[in-house]
Write a structure and sequence with these properties.
- This protein starts with a helix and ends with a helix.
- The chain has helices at 3-22, 28-53, 62-86, 94-103, 109-121, 126-149, 156-164, 167-181, 187-197, 200-211, 221-246, 251-262, 268-276, 280-305.
- It has 14 helices and no strands.
- Helix content is 78%, strand content 0%.
- The chain is globular and about 50 Å long.
- 47% of the residues are buried.
- The chain is an all-alpha fold.
- It has a single domain (3-56, 63-305), classed as Na+/H+ antiporter like fold.
């Protein structure tokens, strides 16, 4: 199985959602119901189950994490500033700038990165992947929520409560707590969460494709392009430079970090945008375009790293 074979089904599911909505087979009201079910139940179950069962005890040098997250935060900041200063609609809008920054720096590490790395390098890289995946969503979703909350002139404790009143953050944090405390979930609950999380990514991709029929994407192509370039070109090159030149990580760690950073924008970024009701059009477009173009960009990185 090659990269195209891994990514093609994701594109097909999103395309199916687009054509179902375009043909009026599903109304916007019906899609909103599916979206609510996905966002409030399936995705949180998927994130909670993943965090609760992840291997968090990793013996890795701190440089390993810095080589990945420093470039991520650089790209996040750069994209946020570009949106805040230049976007014709969302100029000087902190919440929209945070969503744009998320779309430009959040990688699809689980659905695309993990199978590609295991396919190319074997089970030996699983621990390295989970070391990054464990904190990836929690850090970026929390940062995006905190920045977005600053738009509201409310007391700090109200802002804090609203920041963490998010199904994605609640599921990630609670799953991590369960894991770190060492609580073993009852088998019935664990299996129920596993079954509920199975359709999460499929439904999210379907909704993503359907959403493109409601947003005039051609009006925001420039910023979709900027976001995609930052995600697929700038971020992996920065990770490569940090991991090789600055921190001089072992080859296998360098390969894992670069491939994870070269993954397209994760579909959960769209769900965050949809929940915030801002920059949905741009985020949906970035997920679709970066996923299609990742077939080329990730093939390049696999060739370069080998």
């Amino acid at each position: 199985m090659n990269i195209a074979e891994i990514i093609s089904p994701l594109i097909f599911i999103a395309s199916l959602g687009y054509f179902c909505a375009k043909a009026k087979w599903l109304s916007k009201f019906q899609l909103d119901g599916i979206s609510k079910f996905t966002f409030n139940l399936c995705i949180p179950a998927f994130l909670f189950y993943s965090m609760a069962n992840a291997k968090l005890s990793q013996n890795l040098n701190f440089d390993f994490f810095l080589a990945f997250y420093l470039p991520v935060f650089i790209c996040y900041l750069l994209a946020g500033v570009i949106n805040y200063v230049f976007h014709p609609t969302y100029q000087r809008n902190l919440s929209a700038s945070a969503i744009f920054a998320l779309a430009s720096s959040y990688s699809n590490t689980v659905i695309i990165g993990l199978p590609i790395l295991v396919l190319m390098f074997g089970e030996q890289v699983m621990l390295l992947i989970f070391a990054i995946v464990t904190f990836h969503s929690a850090m970026l979703f929390t940062l995006t929520s905190v920045i977005g909350a600053k738009n509201n002139k409310q007391p700090w404790y109200i802002t804090l409560l609203k920041t963490f009143n998010n199904p994605l953050l609640i599921s990630i944090i609670s799953g991590a707590i369960i894991n770190l405390v060492g609580i073993n979930l009852p088998n019935v609950l664990n299996e129920s969460l596993r079954l509920l999380s199975k359709p999460a990514i499929t439904l999210a991709l379907f909704i993503l494709g359907a959403s493109l029929t409601f947003y005039p994407l051609k009006n925001d192509l420039k910023f979709v392009g900027i976001s995609t370039v930052i995600k697929l070109i700038l971020l992996p090159w920065l990770v490569y430079l940090f991991a090789s030149a600055l921190f001089q990580l072992p080859t296998i760690q360098l390969q894992v970090l670069v491939i994870l950073s070269a993954c397209p924008t994760g579909v959960n970024a769209y769900l965050v945008a949809k929940n915030a009701r801002t920059h949905e059009q741009n985020t949906a477009g970035t997920v679709i375009f970066s996923t299609i173009l990742a077939i080329v960009s990730m093939s390049f990185w696999l060739w370069w790293l080998n």
